[in-house]
Amino acid sequence: MKFTEEHEWLRPEDDEENVVTVGITEHAAEQLGDLVFVELPEEGKTVAKEDEVVVIESVKAASDIMAPVDGEIIEVNTALEENPALVNEDPLGAGWFFKMRVADMADLDALMDEAAYKKFI
Amino acid sequence: MAEDLSKTPLDALHRELGARMVPFAGYEMPVQYSAGVMKEHLHCRAAAGLFDVSHMGQVILRPRSGDLADAARALETLVPQSVLALKEERQRYGLFTDDEGGILDDLMIANRGDHLFLVVNAACKACDIAHMRAHLSDACEVEPVEDRALIALQGPAAEDALDALAPGARDMSFMDVTTLESGFGDLWVSRSGYTGEDGFEISVASASAEEFARALLAHENVAPIGLGARDSLRLEAGLCLYGNDIDRTTNPVEANLLWSIQKARREGGERAGGFPGAGAILARIADGPERLRVGLLPEGRAPMRQGTELFADEHDDTPIGAVTSGAFGPSIERPLAMGYVAIDQSALGTKLWGAVRGKRLPVTVAAMPFRPATYKR
User: Fold this and answer.
1) According to the model, what pLDDT value does residue A34 have?
2) What ipTM was predicted for this assembly?
3) In whole angstroms, what is the distance from residue B17 CA to residue B32 CA?
């Protein structure tokens, strides 16, 4: 699993090459507070690193989730539209945001591993 | 955190309870505890919540003559409310207005027998006290209460929790005020609050405040609630937040607070006018407002935050109003807002459009409170 400075995690899928699942970390979910709204991107959308792809609103404020690397959104977690609280309840599991096909898996090498992320926060 | 921030007498307790502290109106205040805003909000509605509101200003107006009517008459020169008609051990909502009819602050005014007791907003208290000293000193001593904390206990279980520590709380009705004896010294209690729930606001000596708060929290139904949930609770109750929904640019009539101006102070009343901005406010009552503060229910789940521009038509370029407070309402399980709209767009059920992140989303003018109040009348 890899981590960004924007508190996203990326989990490479075992059974699909070049595909990662993306969500936010427990730390981020706790800082944001209870989520009340999630707006997901369209499946099939091509995105560049740092594009704003997901809008989330907590009880406090709106924030953006950015694409961690270049690629294509291939699946979104529509369960979040009805139940945004999944992100708070299970940020590393049921609270995932989207799966993307990564343009260049070497981009992941620049991201933090778990130990580095723990140090970062 | 900056060192010039003040701390309330409950500061150590907040930290012990796991509060996240934020700067607010010059104080370090708990925005939430470990339960989080959503659970805290729901707990207050289902059981009881304890709020530290010690940052708010408590002020005593003591008549120099010894006759409370003199203090009441003096205060009526600064507020459009009828203070003279306020009976002993009763409280009412009031407004300090400016010469243009704008709102300087909103406050609670209580008749405590030989003095008036006011509770004003934290961010405004220094100005309010200076304002009163400048205008009321001939008739009253203006005494800021510096040695007492203020605790709000709100929700259906508030009555049981307080009555167990301060017998007599149970016998009070909405907007009653009294002094109750307790093991924590005399408590200055009002049956009121700012959540739409039955509940109390309790002024307690600072030295006893933490012990008193701990005793309330020891009640199985009482949990601490931060400013985050206080905001969503007051918004569901349709109550204004000074600085968001009302300020010097808003007139009490367009702010939909005409109900707070008693007939005695309106045109034709026995003490009509005589408060700052009376000309502008009475004219606004006679002619009707050009815009009005209304409740707003966005469709869908996207909240419409403060500043969201409102349009009469999906494709209009010119806004007819804007949101002044907007959030998600945990009890009504949907987003909600309040804001000002042009008077011809203010009827209940009017469909408007809010501009959210470049999109126009539908929103409907709705009745407030969004959730019926449970005051004990």
Assistant:
1) 92
2) 0.85
3) 10
Kindly state whether residues B191 and B307 are assigned to the same domain.
no
Instruction: Report, as ranges of residue numbers, the positions in chain B whose pLDDT lies below 50.
Output: 1
Q: Using the beta-carbon criterion (under 8 Å), do A37 and B38 form an inter-chain contact?
A: no
Q: What is the pLDDT of residue B1?
A: 47
Same domain, B227 and B358: no
Residues of A within 8 A of B335 (CB-CB) are 36-37
Specify the 3-state DSSP secondary structure of B316.
Answer: coil
Distance from CA of B327 to the nearest CA of A (A): 7
CATH number of the domain where residue B377 is located = 2.40.30.110
Q: Domain extents for chain A?
A: 2-105
**Residue B3 has what pLDDT?**
60
Domain A2-105 has CATH 3.30.1490.20: no
Measured between beta carbons, which residues in chain B are less than 8 angstroms from residue A36?
Answer: 38, 301, 303, 328, 335
Residue B30 lies in a domain: yes
Q: Quick check: B188 and B177 in contact, CB under 8 A?
A: yes
Q: What total of structural domains would you count in chain B? A: 2
Asked whether the beta carbons of residue A57 and residue B303 sit closer than 8 angstroms, the reply is yes
* Cβ atoms of residues B367 and B295 within 8 Å: yes
Residues B151 and B232 in one domain: yes
**Quick check: B37 and A55 CB within 8 A?**
no
Q: Which domain holds residue B176?
A: 11-56+147-236
Tell me the chain A residues in contact with residue B327 when contact means C-beta distances shorter than 8 Å.
59
Find out whether A53 and A41 touch, Cβ atoms under 8 Å. yes
Residues B205 and B331 in one domain: no
- A34, A39, A61: residue with CB nearest B38: A34
Q: pLDDT tens digits for A38-88?
A: 999 999 999 999 999 999 999 888 899 999 999 999 999 999 999 999 999
Residue B339's nearest CA partner among B244, B236, B259, B232 is B244
A34–B contact, CB cutoff 8 A: yes
